[in-house]
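pipeline stage [seq->struct] | target=3-dehydro-L-gulonate 2-dehydrogenase | organism=Sediminibacterium roseum | residues=350
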Amino acid sequence: MENTNIIVSMQEMEERFTTILLKEGFTEAKAKRCAGLFTMNSIDGVYTHGVNRFPRFVRYVREGFVQKDAAPTLQHAFGSLEQWNGNLGPGPLNAEHATQSAMRLAKQHGIGCVALSNTNHWMRAGAYAWQAAKQGFVFIAWTNTIANMPAWGALNAKLGNNPLVLALPFGEEAIVLDMAMSQYSLGSMELAAMKHEKLPVDAGFDKEGKLTNDPAAILETRRLLPTGYWKGSGLALLLDILAAVLSGGLSTADISKKNVEYGLSQVFVAIDLSKLPNHSSIAGVVENIIADYHSSVPADEAKKITYPGERVLQTRRRNLENGIPVQQKVWKIILGLCDGSTDLATIKYI
């Protein structure tokens, strides 16, 4: 029964999150903004980095890995490039600040790059990509993580699955590719394991070294499968190197010495399309590309070929109209955080 979904309205979810964060000592402004970001991730169907991830965020606040009162500070500025220290503040708020700063620089220089050190998990990269793209910017961002993925051909984890997001405006919305360097994110596998479901395709190795789509077996070995095998492995390595070098922050190897994922390095790049001489024709070019893409012949007639972010729009509309589906087990934990009955130390896959 605990795996049965209940429906929670956007208003109730945001109010519950805000109440909990206020109890944890957040200012009203930070509590509401952070609650809004977690709620929006849930509305868009990214439950693994929305409602499901919220209890772990609260736990990290209590344990001091997330400094609720901290804010980013500028370390260095040179033209269109800025380095900021996140001071271990709330990852979503730090990332939103970095996104706004990158757009500010792009408005001035055409392109803006903000490298952020000493920050925390940003939850869902797509949240900031949607913000930037809907304001007319091309947006590229990535983060490193604690070591959670072996290099291709290796047994032990030395790479992070280092999520990467790319986005651009499309009509009134955006095209947004938000992906980890592993075939499935850890959050997706944790959710599937919690629901006792198998993954659609193989995503890692079991104890016998065999490829499997069993998320529980993969979480046990921590042998995630890189996207594109050696290609995803190589890209994860370069994203880590660039994040550490550009921000002056920690690498995956450094972060992994702490055994808890905090003190991450991230990069945010914004490009102001209005500065390009072909600005007036860009929308038509993108529309023609997507129209051609949509003309693909699907291998399964029951399935539509969608561009990155298109299914998010469908989920967003559905969840705004009908409410957000949340597992009873997860919502029980959220309610327990409101009344103080939840013991966060007992939570494994949240």
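stage status: PASS
auto-comment: DSSP finds twelve helices and 13 strands in the chain. The chain has a mean pLDDT of 95.
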